[in-house]
Each structure stands twice: as C-alpha cells, then as structure tokens.
Specification:
- The strands form 2 sheets. Strands 3-4-5 form a 3-stranded antiparallel sheet. The protein has a two-stranded antiparallel sheet with strand order 1-2.
- It has one domain.
- It is rod-shaped and about 100 Å long.
- It is of the alpha+beta class.
- The model has no long low-confidence stretch (mean pLDDT 84).
Length: 149
Amino acid sequence: MCGRSLSGSNEKGFVLAIMPYLILAFVTLLWFLCSIGYQVLVRHMAQSAADAAALAGASNFKAYRESSDPWDWTGEVKVAIDPVQAEAEARSYLERNSEVLKRLVLNMDPVFEVVDDRTYRVTLNLRLKPLFDQERDMTVVAVAHVENP
C-alpha cells in the first residue's frame, strides 16, 4: 500500500518529546536577540552623546592671524581650539545628552582631548550593565574637525 494511515502508528507522543527542545531553542534565540539589541541601543545613544560633545568642544576655537600688524589682512587665518573652554563645553553637552544612557551603564568614563589645532576628540569608555550575562566594556570615539572659520 502506498499511502499508509498514521492512525495506527506509535507516533502520538512525538510533539510532546520535541517541544522542550523547541522551547529551549526559542528562548536561546530570544536571549541572543535581546542582548544584541541592548548593545546596539547603548552604542547608538553613546555615539550620539559623544558626537554632540565633540562638536561642542570643537566649536570653541579662536581664529587669529600671525601678523603683528592689526591692519594686515593678507596673512592666513590660524585656528586653535581652547582646551579648557572646549572641555567645559563638551562636558556640559555630554551631561545633557547622556541622561538616559547613564541608566543603562554601570560606569561612563569620558576622555576629552585636543588632537591638534583644528581637531577635538571625545572618547567614552563604558561598562554596560549585565542584561542576562556578564558585564561588557564598550568604547565609543567621536572626532570633530574645524575647517575654515
């Protein structure tokens, strides 16, 4: 006979036997997706806050000419970022833009630095709160560059 009927077979408990494995696979997949989603969310929020801080720091520049004659407008305009004022402004922007981020991380250690006369960098070293597993470290870097004032 080609088409056997399953009503007389011994396969009645097959779904019950495989169900715990399917539930385990589904819960594992859900855990993995939540963990990755949490990390992506924290990275996105940290990158936005670091970008705002770097732009605020780079906006504190002073434009000047090297000529000692105040009426000489032929020289090239030089730009220098004021490190003290830039860090104060960058810290202020970082505080305002990272209120929600501080609830998601255990520790946020910002590093503010003037790379050269026209470039300002903000580095955020983060320690994420454990969602399901262990704590994770993450570093986010934002660089802002001043072109012509």
